[in-house]
Amino acid sequence: MEKLRAPTISAHGAVMPVIGYGTMELPQRPAELVAAAIAAGYRAIDTARKYGTEQFVGEGIRASKIARSELFVTTKVTEENAREADFMRSIETSLKTLGLDYVDLLLVHWPQPKVPFKETLGALAKAKRQGMTRHIGVSNFTLAMLDEAVSLCPEPLVTNQVEYHAYLPQDRMLAALKRHGMILTAYCPVARGQLLTDPVVIEIAKAHNKTPAQVSLRWLVQQPGVAAVPRALEERHIVENLDIFGFTLSDDEMRRLSALRKRQVRIADPPERAPKWDVETVA
User: Fold this and answer.
1) From CA 38, how far away is CA 63, in angstroms rounded?
2) Count: domains in the chain
3) Are 245 and 8 in contact (CB under 8 A)?
4) Active-site residue flag, 51
5) Are 87 and 125 in contact (CB under 8 A)?
6) pTM confidence score
7) Residue 209 maps to a domain
8) What is the pLDDT of residues 25-37, one digit of tens each?
9) Do the domain assignments include residue 213?
């Protein structure tokens, strides 16, 4: 079988695949799964200090024997390290743990209200200027936080990585990111499996001879300015999640899937670090 490849999406000089392999909570064989993802054709790998998978991502990359220049590796600095000195130590630790000289994208993982954004974003820009990362962005930022971050950061921000799937509207965030020339990177893209049993998703999947996961991911990346980082714990699902570019959802199917957002399901909402989320009005 011809190796699968995801098309790319670009913002502020960054060119990243629209589907990446997410590595949060890989309970078994994590390095093998990363290597399997690369072998299947993934070229974007998403990790974070908080995930505890950076070591395995590095091992998987080395096991794959792929050239470093072919990969787009993302990691994140957690909110506990929002102060500049801690931030710089965190990315140094990440690079050492990954066994890489640089990452392609470095994100502020969660906003830290106790530290001025200017300090954290200054450290983020510093990491880029020192060659520790090629591009920078944020994650889990609200609309107001995003606008503030863009205005304060000395270097352009590429993405806001947020929860996004057919059960959670993000229209206002998409519009804001478009205004800033940025990408929305969707995590929890199949709503932690909830979309896989939805009757509407199942019906559309059968019509295309695809799986509910493939339809859910296709709905995301068929929207302008959206990328996704699904997780998969089995090699067949790793391949399945990347095999979404041989079909197109009709306008009616896109509308039917978008209508599911009335469910207003938010999965990632840790009380110890989540901001007060923006409320989307669903017609």
Assistant:
1) 10
2) 1
3) no
4) yes
5) no
6) 0.97
7) no
8) 888 899 999 999 9
9) no
